[in-house]
Design brief:
The chain is of the alpha+beta class. The protein is built from two helices and four strands; from the N terminus they run E-H-E-E-H-E.
Length: 98
């Protein structure tokens, strides 16, 4: 398994329970596909550098996890179809970061 980091921004005009449910849904994808979450950070509501889909603020999350390429493909697919996610990015972390 490889180490990955995913950052995603959720629309902040939703209520807190919807924002947390969106984050939990993505975390559940990782755990159900035999991935391991190593770290999860809730960075809170921040102003965006430029408007995205007419939104000027977003709720930021960062999740570090171990998983397979199939897991990453499914996570990417789920993030694209969820309309409450403004942006997401998944990167593979190098082995040198130990």
């Amino acid at each position: 398994m490889n180490k990955y980091e995913m950052m995603f921004i959720v629309k902040s005009n939703s209520d807190d329970s919807k924002i947390q449910a969106t984050a939990e849904n993505l975390k559940n994808v990782i755990t159900t596909m035999n991935g391991e979450i190593t770290d999860s950070k809730d960075l809170g509501n921040k102003e965006l550098a430029y408007p995205i889909k007419k939104q000027t603020t977003g709720y930021y999350f960062v999740v570090d996890f171990n998983g397979t390429t199939e897991l990453v493909a499914e996570l990417d697919r789920k993030a694209r179809i969820d309309e409450s996610i403004l942006r997401h990015l998944i990167i593979r972390l190098d082995e040198e970061e130990k």
